[in-house]
């Protein structure tokens, strides 16, 4: 059991896991802020919470380079830090939102499903022209069949896709290699 904890005591894993946990909790607070302002907290209005991810990935790369890398950091270290933070945060946020809509206020999820159905129905003529009546019916049924547990995988997949370019750019910006002698 000691070797298990020693594995997670490496700075390259410990730093991003802690920053990822912090990022996930802060993103959930953003969700709660939207909820308290009576703005639908599920949907595209939550996309700016990715700014929290970007800020904390930058800070974590700077912190790792300064404290553990003695001023040096390879590109792969930056990428590792960025993706571990991003995925940990998405996992934590997804689960916290799932628990919120399952146990505290299930109406939030029901309102979200209704908004998605209303959006599809408002664009029905355009969608039917593009994908056909049968596919539109399938799409509408899939929206109706959504469960709160889909929020977890949705959060992880969205944050993964949103994070590819910014994490690469942040890693490139913060990398600094020792000169060859």
From TrEMBL:
Keywords (A to Z) from UniProt: Membrane, Transmembrane, Transmembrane helix
The keyword Membrane belongs to this UniProt entry's keyword annotation: yes
Segments traversing the membrane: 12-33, 45-62, 83-104
Keyword Membrane in annotation: yes
Superkingdom of the source species: Bacteria
Listed name of the protein: DUF4199 domain-containing protein
């Amino acid at each position: 059991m000691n070797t298990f904890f020693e594995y997670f005591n490496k700075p390259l894993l410990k730093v991003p896991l802690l920053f990822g946990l912090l990022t996930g909790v802060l993103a959930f607070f953003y969700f709660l802020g939207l909820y308290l302002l009576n703005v639908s907290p599920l949907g595209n209005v939550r996309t700016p919470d990715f700014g929290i991810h970007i800020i904390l990935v930058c800070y974590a790369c700077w912190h790792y380079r300064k404290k553990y890398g003695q001023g040096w950091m390879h590109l792969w270290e930056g990428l590792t830090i960025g993706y571990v933070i991003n995925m940990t945060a998405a996992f934590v946020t997804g689960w916290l939102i799932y628990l919120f809509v399952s146990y505290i206020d299930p109406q939030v999820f029901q309102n979200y499903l209704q908004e998605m159905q209303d959006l599809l129905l408002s664009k029905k003529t355009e969608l039917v022209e593009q994908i056909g009546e049968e596919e539109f019916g399938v799409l509408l049924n899939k929206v109706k069949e959504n469960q709160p547990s889909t929020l977890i995988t949705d959060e992880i997949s969205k944050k993964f896709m949103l994070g590819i370019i910014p994490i690469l750019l942040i890693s490139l910006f913060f990398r600094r290699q020792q000169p060859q002698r």
